[in-house]
């Protein structure tokens, strides 16, 4: 019933918003690197928790969306473009908003194709407690930052030393962040899927355990017994800061904390065997747990 109500509210808004050029307010990191990931964030102050609220999101890359630190669907990622079709998704975000300061945060990862200055388009709309409509959109008041040495494209690299855990929080002070550049143009080479109230995609299905591990000339191999779509997740303990772990083309740079986890954040694979190599003082004994995260699309 809640889904049907959300769908009706969303469709009514879409039908009434053509004059506002709905979904065309693009922002991008200044001078975007087509492989560098980007964090976007914006705080909105609401006098009361809204009666109903939605977020409509389009992106030319993969992304994760957080509101007040919470993943709004539980999905591990969303693909902005599928089969050369720009995906425009609508999320019911009512239960994530509150009276006061609300932080909207998006983790953007390029898909390896030029974004042409259009990385993220996001609109928040709905009705307050008095049924008065409200509307916000991505613009020059947002803030953005490229997490250092975190890249995504055909392969992926994540430097855990530069990861800021609290960048999505209300308390975080985004010193040194940049204002994005904006665009009102739509890439006409891409067709756009119609707006839909989105439930979830790319959610965790099963957690698998390897059936065996072995060494050969390629490296340390982890065999899960069957192919699965998703990512390996490796728990590392007492590694030295800056040591590099390579996993099927993914490079993870250790932060040196007591426990840390290496896994693909955006470039999921369909694999049975993962091959690990490493450098420096890293040892196999630093690996304390190995899991396969099978994703249900």
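Sequence proposed for the structure above (297 residues):
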């Amino acid at each position: 019933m809640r889904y049907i109500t959300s769908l009706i509210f969303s469709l009514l808004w879409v039908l009434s918003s053509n004059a506002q050029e709905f979904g065309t307010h693009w922002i991008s990191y200044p001078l975007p690197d087509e492989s560098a990931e980007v964090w976007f964030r914006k705080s909105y102050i609401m006098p009361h928790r809204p009666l109903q609220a939605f977020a409509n999101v389009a992106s030319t890359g993969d992304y994760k969306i957080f509101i007040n630190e919470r993943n709004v669907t539980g999905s591990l990622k969303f693909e902005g473009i599928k089969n050369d079709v720009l995906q425009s998704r609508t999320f019911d975000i009512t239960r994530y908003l509150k009276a006061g300061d609300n932080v909207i945060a998006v983790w953007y990862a390029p898909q390896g194709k030029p974004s042409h200055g259009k990385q993220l388009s996001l609109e928040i709309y709905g009705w307050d407690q008095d049924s008065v409509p409200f509307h916000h959109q991505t613009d020059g008041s947002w803030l953005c930052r490229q997490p250092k040495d975190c890249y995504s494209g055909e392969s992926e690299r994540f430097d855990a030393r530069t990861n800021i855990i609290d960048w999505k929080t209300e308390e975080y002070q985004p010193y040194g962040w940049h204002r994005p550049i904006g665009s009102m143009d739509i890439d006409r080479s891409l067709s756009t899927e119609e707006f839909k109230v989105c439930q979830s995609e790319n959610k965790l299905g099963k957690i698998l355990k390897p059936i065996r591990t072995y060494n050969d000339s390629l490296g340390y191999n982890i065999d899960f017994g069957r192919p699965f779509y998703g990512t390996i997740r490796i728990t590392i303990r007492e590694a030295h800061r800056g040591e590099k772990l390579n996993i099927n083309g993914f490079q993870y740079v250790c932060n040196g904390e007591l426990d840390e986890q290496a896994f693909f954040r955006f470039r999921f694979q369909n694999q049975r065997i993962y091959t690990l190599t490493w450098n420096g003082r890293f040892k196999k004994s630093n690996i304390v747990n190995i899991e396969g995260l099978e994703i249900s699309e």
